[in-house]
Amino acid sequence: MKAIVVTDEAAGTGGMKLAERPEPQAAINDVVVHIHASGFVGTELTWPSTWTDRLDRSRTPTIPGHELAGVITALGYGTVGLSVGQRVFGLADWYRDGTLAEYVAIEARNLAPLPGDVDFTVGASLPISGLTAWQGLFEHGRLRAGQSVIAHGAAGAVGSMVTQLAREAGAYVIGTGRAADRQKVLDFGAQEFVDLDNDALEDVGKVDLVFDVIGGDIQKRSAGLIRAGGTLVTIVAPAETRPVDGLAVDFVVESSRAQLGEIVQRVRDGRLRSNIGNIATLDDAVAAFNPTRRISGKTIIRVRP
Q: What pLDDT, on the 0 to 100 scale, is given for residue 289?
């Protein structure tokens, strides 16, 4: 099969190439999926799990990418709840070969059914962004109706999901970004917009929850905006500055079939929109990993035309 592979951690994205790899086999509780579309995170080549297994042994050549939508072609021994020919989408294990390939072997529990009226491209855009937003807001942030939320990077793949899910949950949402992002952020449902280059973030006042996807100075300043009992949720790095009377939570997203089902149902009934900024083919995936311009939204690799 064709796949994007990396072999040299020091080379970073410069060491990526399109190559032929053996088709994967389904282990116990696995399925093999013929991938139609996949997604990736631009920082994957800096993750230890991209290069070593759970016992710290090298696992190169590695296939990156962890989001997928496709059709099941084989079931491993003991696999239940899914069937050959079924449309699925989901989030692949960080320590196994990923989804920038024509096929992937993946634990069945990491997949959810993809309804026939949801395009594979849309399905592949949902797992990391949707699950990250869902878990950050509702599991770690304990968001409730009537609370206020700052969604940093609200025009991006994760931030736009945070904005939409928080607004649907009855929160007052303040989105942040660059000046050019203003209308896009408001279109995704934010009630206010803060231009991080030109507006004073502190003018927002106290809020119940900040969802940080930026880190650095923005994260530090955001800690001071958390009101008593509130939460700073971050997916970048542990907070260096913590809220005085609140919590700081950093987390790594986990797969959840039930949550994927909740997310895709919201897409089907129009309550949630995916945020796809670029679509490329597998042949062009190396270039997509090295964009020459800023992409606002998710880049999806269309593996099967």
A: 84
